[in-house]
Design a protein that fits this description.
Layout: H1 6-26, H2 43-60, H3 64-83, H4 86-91, H5 96-119, H6 133-157, H7 159-165, H8 173-192, H9 197-215, H10 218-221, H11 236-281
Length: about 280
């Protein structure tokens, strides 16, 4: 594995394992983050199977002999997860909350694409090579940048809800809602237009980490009342929200680390072209 990406990849794997474990324990999918339509019989069995897949794939990502096959399987799984958001987008594209849900999973998918681009070993495959190496990382960067923007906009569209999620002991809760929304939009634009993109990805990672622990931290797992109005009582919802935010933050960190590799790969290619031109000029 690439040494610089080991911590981010480990965090990504831990998030996959944790979410999979929740699916196995509760025999269900990840609420509205994983909107599998209700059907009987077999829905619980499918949820458990998907949970086991996430656990096994998450473990496999941690080891060199299995990381290539695991990165391929995880990308396909996350693509299916992303496709679950498309029906709602077709039905209600005017609702910002729908774009929020799509954006969150698209950020997660972009992280999976970074893993695929770095570790899949399909650089020589005729179809998949465009999603590996520098080209794959560029696609992941653009996708992540686009996906962050509706997530940031949701803070502005739903200021009261966002402010209500901010811990009560913090001052200026509405201000935090606006600040984080504008901050996420700025990070998305920075990634899209390559304006300090690595810094933008690190800032997004830091914000998501703060959201995970301040909004969905351990104090919410054992609370007698749900943190978000309308969500079910009990630890399952806050735990799911915590690990969803965790794994998206890990995806952002993977992207931030990969931007160095993308730049170095481009520099190497530029130097190689310069060398070849010079050699041809003096041949």
């Amino acid at each position: 594995m690439i040494r610089e990406q080991q911590p981010a990849l480990s965090l990504f794997s831990i998030g996959m394992i944790a979410l999979g474990t929740l699916s196995v324990i509760y025999r269900d999918f990840a609420y509205n983050w994983q909107p599998v339509p209700p059907f009987h019989p077999g829905r619980e069995a499918l949820a458990v199977a998907c949970g086991l897949f996430m656990v096994i794939a998450g473990v496999a990502l941690l080891f060199r002999p299995t990381v290539a096959i695991a990165s391929r399987a995880v990308l396909l799984f996350l693509l299916a997860w992303l496709c679950l958001k498309i029906p709602a987008l077709i039905v209600a594209p005017q609702i910002e909350g729908v774009w929020l849900g799509l954006g969150e999973i698209a950020m997660l998918f972009a992280g999976g694409l970074v893993v695929f681009a770095r570790f899949s070993g399909l650089e020589q495959a005729s179809f998949f090579k465009r999603f590996t190496g520098t080209s794959g990382l560029q696609i992941a960067r653009i996708l992540f940048g686009l996906a962050v923007i509706p997530v940031g906009l949701s803070h502005l569209f739903y200021v009261k809800i966002t402010a209500g999620l901010v811990p009560s002991w913090l001052p200026f809760r509405v201000g935090f809602a606006y600040l984080t929304g504008v901050g996420q939009i700025a990070c998305g634009l920075g990634l899209l237009f390559m304006v300090l993109p690595r810094l933008a990805a690190y800032i997004e990672t830091a914000m998501l980490a703060i959201f995970a622990f301040l909004v969905w931290g351990p104090n919410t797992w054992f609370a007698s009342a749900p943190k978000m109005s309308g969500s079910p009582v009990g630890p399952r919802f806050p735990l799911t929200a915590f690990f969803i935010t965790w794994i998206i933050a890990a995806a952002s960190l993977l992207l931030a680390d990969s931007l160095t590799d993308e730049r170095s790969d481009s520099d190497k290619l530029s130097k190689q072209r310069t060398t070849n031109d010079s050699a041809g000029r003096y041949a």
